[in-house]
Amino acid sequence: MDRLKFVTVVLGSSPRMAWTGPVLAVLLLGLVGGDRVQAGASDVPLTVAGLDGREIPLLAPDRGTTVAVFYSTECPIANALCPALADIAGAFPADRINLVAICVQAQLDEHQIREHARQYGLDTFRLARDHRGVVAELMGATVTPEAFVIDDKGTIRYQGRIDDSYAAPGIKRAVPRSQDLRDAIAAVLEGDQVAELYVEPVGCPMPVPPSPPTYTEHVAPILFANCTECHRPGEIGPFPLLTYEQARIRAGFLADITLDRRMPPWSATPGFGPAFAHDRSLSSEEIETLVAWADADAPHGPGPEPEPPTFSDAEWTYGTPDIILDLPEFEIPAGGYDIYRCFVLPSGLVEDTEVKVVEYQPGNPRVVHHMLGYVDTTGRARQLDEEEDGPGYTCFGGPRVQVASGLAGWAPGVEPEDYGEGIGRRIPKGSDIVVQVHYHPSGKPETDRSRIGLYLARKPLERIVASNMAINRNFYIPAGEPNQEVTAEWVVPEVDLEIVSVTPHMHQIGRDMTMTVDLPDGSTQELIKIARWDFNWQSIYVLEEPMPLPVGSRVKLVAHFDNSAENPWNPNDPPEPMFWGEATTEEMCIGFVGVVKADQDLTRGDPDDLGEIFGRQWEQRAKDAKPDRERIEAIKAELHARRETEPEAPAAADDLRDD
Predict the structure, then answer these.
(1) Which of 108, 117, 214, 318 has the fewest CB within 10 Å, making it most exposed?
(2) pTM for this structure?
(3) Torsion-angle region of residue 160: left (phi > 0), alpha (psi -120 to 50) or beta?
(4) Could you tell me the domains of the chain?
(5) Residues 342, 384: Cα–Cα separation, whole Å
(6) Tens digit of pLDDT for each residue in 405-444?
């Protein structure tokens, strides 16, 4: 498969893939027999298609491992080794091992795969399918069964046989002499090296994949549903995808960027946590279709070329908003760095106002990358605006003021946030709306004048959306550190809540972030995982259904940062020590959580007191964090003193490393 070599090189040289582990191992160890990616590589797909349509992650749980086994129900060797797999499933802690059995037969339906798993004891595994063989070929599987052990960095630590029960096809030993897969799992869980990265498996050849997909039957529906909203004239996409020829000449590129999940822009790892509204990610089967189409030289298919979708000419999603606020006209140069600009819009409200939906309207979609809104009741944003020439003020990491609340946002493909009947926001009278706009120069001078529309609640709201966060302001990321871990948590105070949205936030050297919830009953609920952080594609993730968050629940955040010279997104060359801050040369570590009170009903007189409850909690948290702040200030002072006295000395010493 010649294109696999190209995919491996492209993914290995991608700035974001460089953060997922030792990607150079793909180039050094990964090409065996011309085009197979061997153990030691980190070129692992994020997910595989589950039988129920949900994505199954192939990345391992923290400090755990994923065991992925490709199999066929028609292979007698695979069937004979199912009991060994069942034994392995019961031999390790369930919370540290992600077991995935991937069926590679195209003709089997969900019921047939589940019934086979029940009969052969594979029902302890998460069942998936790779009906076009794309995942198997990408990972280098050549027979069934073939096993892979993947660590929590996305690196393949073992590939090959389950054990040595078969000396060759048709030659079965009475008693297996080695337990290769079991030993590899144990080594990874213990933090040890695996004895042999690759042990040649014995099994049945991979099934021949079905006929390749075609543009008219399979590819056009995927592009029209997920890509053409942005990839059409006048929008932010750099090229159109409205015709067969426009897609054909980019077939390999489309396969690569969707396989890497760089496009469509959706950073949340599929299959982790609750379902999100307006999920723009492609399913594993859709990605497999694009890859198989490219590999088959992009056939047109039967029938005429499909007509591309038409897009509404309506200015606003829900009709004309009750209040429309215009941002000032802003000029964007032809080139240079991206621009982050905050514009201050007086709300003009003479009384506290309940808002059901907020909609952002980019004036010039060619250059508007995303917009985020905030409510400022202090007047500080106005001062920042007045202190800087031109409309608005510079604001890279956020609005640079202590805001009263967030006010949703926009990115390509994002629909206005509607949290459901009776849920909305309250904007205080006299407050200012601060809108941060990320501009991306297009190659020629441009102007923009975007707008924001407020749809007022038609009847009194029952519940008000508020925001809190798991946040760490007191961290230290040494210069040169490629994988600094930073943690944070937020404990739910006083009242039962429900989560309606989640928004991870870091700056440019962020590598990944995982958020979970430890519930009072001792269980843990997944919330969101950003396996490959990209500062340029930040989103507010709205849950399809609110998640219960009882009093005492702990929202936990684990993030990693890459402050090495190998990180192409590092704003410092050479790397400098990193601390909390607003600037491009500083970092943040926040997991915002949008919440409502679980049983609140303002129409029956319940208090709107989440702001007061959170305020008391913040005061206490500030006091509790004082020792950490003092520790970080001491580190800063020590680093400054070293620079003054030893200008040539490394900026980050091991004895200053943050525990």
Answers:
(1) 318
(2) 0.70
(3) left
(4) 2-205 (3.40.30.10), 215-295 (no CATH), 323-461 (2.60.120.310), 466-635 (2.60.120.230)
(5) 9
(6) 888 888 776 778 888 888 999 999 999 999 999 898 888 9
